Amino acid sequence: MKLPELSTTEYGLLGHPLGHSHSKALFNAKGISYENFDLSALDPAALYGLVLMNPKLKGFNVTKPYKQAIIPLLDKLDPTAAGIGAVNAVKIKRADDGRIIALEGYNTDYEGFKMSVSAFIDGTGISDALILGTGGASKAVAAALASLGINYLFVSRGKHAIDIIEYDKLTPEIMEQNRLIVNTTPLGMYPDTDSCPPIPYEAVTERHKCFDLVYNPAETEFMRRCAARGADVKNGSEMLVAQAEAAYRIWTDNNI
């Protein structure tokens, strides 16, 4: 029986699906060996099979839908990632002979979003925000906003906690108070580019700042509708680069 060929890639991206992602192109353009690991399900066998079949792998990013699901499968969590409750970067620690010592989880979405949104809202006096979605990325966004002294309210299709409001409960008053709106859902992401979060866009004004974590396409339907109401908009491309650079520093102790 012929054994499967082992990969020599050093870094990668774990998630499903991955057709929208620009991470591989970003790293490859810098001459860094980086591959997509599209897994339709994540369990201990799938994760360790991935690591074993890639003996040169030093670390990988994690994207939807596994930023929370991967946590129980890791050996160690960085305090920031533990506090956020989501992981988007994993460092693989190996012995000199290649044996796996530990899988360590980190969150660089926090750093990437905080840097990008700080510049976006600088000088606006914004103190309240709506976070659209409650997935893994939303946790990093919430932590970053809290560190900036900004109050936030999660918006979801179903109410699950006291700090979550349903989309159809967004009144003009709530929209006016929360002048920063952050989309952390995949709505509008390629190839589903016609979709968008169901907020009352008629209540968006020129006083709003609307940030979409999606970067493919560069202008999402959410951004287009908000811009049509006079709001400033920004996509997640700058955040993508910043979180990737932070992840690379964790994996290598060097800059890209």
Please give the count of helices. Answer: 8
Largest sheet: 6 strands, mixed
CATH class of the largest domain equals Alpha Beta
Helix content: 25-40%
By secondary-structure content and strand pairing, the structural class works out as alpha/beta
Low-confidence stretches: none
For the termini, the CA-CA separation is 41 Å
CATH topology (level 3) name of the largest domain: Rossmann fold
Gyration radius, to the nearest Å?
A: 19 Å
Number of domains: 2
Q: How would you portray this structure in words?
A:
By secondary structure, the chain is an alpha/beta fold. It folds into two domains: about 10-105, Leucine Dehydrogenase, chain A, domain 1 (Rossmann fold); about 110-240, NAD(P)-binding Rossmann-like Domain (Rossmann fold), CATH 3.40.50.720. The protein contains eight helices and twelve strands. The chain has helices at about 25-30, 45-55, 80-85, 110-120, 135-145, 170-175, 220-230, 235-250, and strands at about 10-15, 35-40, 60, 75, 90-95, 100-105, 130, 150-155, 165, 180-185, 210, 230-235. It has a six-stranded mixed β-sheet with strand order 2-1-3-5-6-4. It has a six-stranded parallel β-sheet with strand order 9-8-7-10-11-12, sandwiched between helices. Helix 4 runs antiparallel to helix 8. The chain is elongated, with a radius of gyration of 19 Å. The termini are far apart.
